[in-house]
């Protein structure tokens, strides 16, 4: 038999990989039935969602209809002829094209996010990636590549991991999208955004981000899904978006775990 260019061999290797993956998926499913996975917030056995029923019930997930521009929930469904954007986004659109958040940033979600972000509990990454994939399904479907908001090397050294990257990686893998962790860098070590007004946040990150040369080649003409943990005023998302657009990205959408309820009402 002629095995020109090793085509048949590669086909067999591909089939073998597929069977191995199927076997692993079956084994994981069987193991979950026998030994249910533990909740991230408790030693109790729980469903695959990763939270105990009590913790799950306290999370305020954002369901449609939401503003296409900032992801804020509308108070009611205005029907097929309603505006797709809130009044603030119509009057003063963000630089990023669209935004989605999985839930409201409040006491319930904040405790989980802070444990993930500052408590080194990286087991939350896959859970948050699933939340964002669901809330931002339209954005994921139309994206060409996924980019996490970067940390400055000094902050990365102290924290040991970039929370946005830990979410973006499994999200990109599940969606079959290019994952570009090094396309965007934090060029300056800025102060924390916490406690700053909307104007202060903008000034703090105005020129903080830059696109690498390698990133520029992979971004050009593509729609980018930018991943971060929390949307407050949108200053960080806008600063990243400007850098990505200047580097040739066709458009940038933003997806986060949570957003504050009144981002546009923070003190200017």
From TrEMBL:
What domain of life does the UniProt record list for this protein's source?
Bacteria
Organism of derivation: Brevundimonas aurantiaca
Taxonomic lineage of the native organism: Bacteria, Pseudomonadati, Pseudomonadota, Alphaproteobacteria, Caulobacterales
Name of the molecule in the record: ComF family protein
| Annotated Phosphoribosyltransferase domain residues | 204-263
A Pfam family this protein belongs to?
Pribosyltran
Per the record, the similarity remark reads: Belongs to the ComF/GntX family.
Record InterPro entries: ComF/GntX_DNA_util-trans, PRTase-like, PRTase_dom
